[in-house]
Design a protein that fits this description.
The chain is α+β, with helices and mostly antiparallel strands and about 500 residues long. The chain folds into 3 domains: about 160 residues, FAD/NAD(P)-binding domain (3-Layer(bba) Sandwich); about 160 residues, D-Amino Acid Oxidase, subunit A, domain 2 (D-Amino Acid Oxidase, Chain A, domain 2, 2-Layer Sandwich), CATH 3.30.9.10; about 80 residues, Arc Repressor Mutant, subunit A. The chain contains 12 helices and 24 strands. The strands form 5 sheets. Strands 6, 7, 8, 15, 16, 17, 18, 19 and 20 form a 9-stranded mixed β-sheet that branches. Strand 21 and strand 22 form a beta hairpin. The longest helix is centred in the first third of the chain and has 19 residues. It is globular and about 65 Å long. The chain starts with a strand and ends in a 28-residue tail after the last helix. Bound molecules: flavin-adenine dinucleotide. The site of flavin-adenine dinucleotide has 40 residues, from helix 1, strand 20 and helix 8.
Length: about 500
Amino acid sequence: MNCLREADVVVVGGGIMGTAVLRELSKYDLKSILVEKEPDLAMGTTKANSAILHAGFDAPNGSMKARMNVRGNTLYHILEDQLDLDIKWTGSLVVATSEEELATLRELLERGRKNGVGGLQILSAEEVLAKEPNLTKTVTGALWAPSAGVCWPFAAALSFARSAVQNGAEIFTDCRVEGIVVADGKVTGVKTSKGLIKTGLVINAAGLYADEVAKMAGDESFSIHPRKGEYILFDKTVADKMVNGIVFPTPNKTTKGVLVCTTTHGNTFIGPNAEDIEDKDDRAVTITGMDRIIASAKKLLPEIPLGAAITEFCGLRAASDSGDFIIGKSRVAGLLHAAGMQSPGLTAAPAVAEELARLVRELLPMVHLKKGFQSILPKKTVFHRLSRVKQAAAVQKNKLYGRVICRCETITEAEIVAAINESCGARTVDGVKRRTRAGMGRCQGGFCGPRVTQILARELGIPVTEVLKERADSHMFYEKEPAAGEEA
Ligand SMILES: Cc1cc2nc3c(=O)[nH]c(=O)nc-3n(C[C@H](O)[C@H](O)[C@H](O)COP(=O)(O)OP(=O)(O)OC[C@H]3O[C@@H](n4cnc5c(N)ncnc54)[C@H](O)[C@@H]3O)c2cc1C
């Protein structure tokens, strides 16, 4: 096998976990490489979840989940500005509708305080309805957690990745790990679809496939099972009939339950359910799932404007057999895991990254913080958030700001061109969508899809028939076969 690279550390998986780890490692004088099997980053669980930066009252006291959640939440408050992350610190409510549920809230309050969550408070029914007037009038109280918020998960992963690259790390997409080379009980390399990477350290952040990556090195200490969660997303036009923040039902022993939640961009969603399945690639949305989440969400929000649903989607939790995160050293020397990262994995990611960087320093004691680490990413222009005066100035400077490509979300050609040409830039129509929101509005790309395809073709210097929606063979347009007698 050809040797692609040599590296001090190879991170497997380009979700929120892998990208956060890569950025943390880029603070040190290390050669770090991330490999991702898909054509873009954040195409796994990181692209389909509830997007909540949890406060941290839910996880059992003393668990890895609890520790990483609370620290991760704190870190996002710091990283928000450095990495230009899109976060709304809305706070969250866990709503009770009976006396028994109020007792559960008191347990959650106690657990949260022991986990180190600040500001927790039980609100009366009146206080809850003052915050969220559309909720069921059967509310008896709620647990208020002011430090919770909602984020834009794939943009966060891309920001971690761009920051890491800015600081010297390297990323290979379309690069599947097919084997881990172990000699004398130690990792010596990673076999990928693009060639061998010689390395003594591998960080396994492969999400649903973390057990399979571990097995490649001979570590069979855990397995990962997919647990499906389905959602319905609603148009912004009905936001006033929905909720202002994050509203959970009182949890039971197995799940946090179906929630009603705002997004960073003003939409609302209901979901997720929790369905154990076999197939790690099964992202189908089901009628049964939809019926269940609608019935559950109606217990919190009785009048849901179902006609304003704009899309449904599904995410797969990477549930470990222990139920807790698996973070740390494998019994195979040189292999570290960030596995079993189900909720609150998104929140925990920057804290897990800190923990893994600490372990890497333990294993490579000669490694030091690098001089000149750049913690700040340049801010992106989001045209629709500018004042009229600034919009006019932007158009003066670059006329492509004057061409609105996605009418639902007011995304301009200049923003799309920037998303293609920036580091870790978009290569597919969905890649543009994840970076700019073009195609995420009410028409779900029906109007702007062909125009985004044209822009991608022009910027990448390829014919429109080669532009992909997402994965291999998902072409947006095909060359028409000539009819009999017609010239080709
Ligand atoms: C329904 C649902 C709701 C959730 N809600 C929340 C929430 O509100 N708040 C929260 O904090 N967390 C939430 N989570 C959890 C959170 O989404 C995950 O913890 C997080 O996204 C996991 O990130 P990851 O990087 O570990 O995995 P992923 O995003 O799946 O990334 C793993 C990557 O590894 C790649 N990969 C796999 N195998 C290989 C290979 N052989 N070679 C190269 N690359 C490979 C994959 O392609 C993938 O891109 C939720 C999860 C679900 C499913």
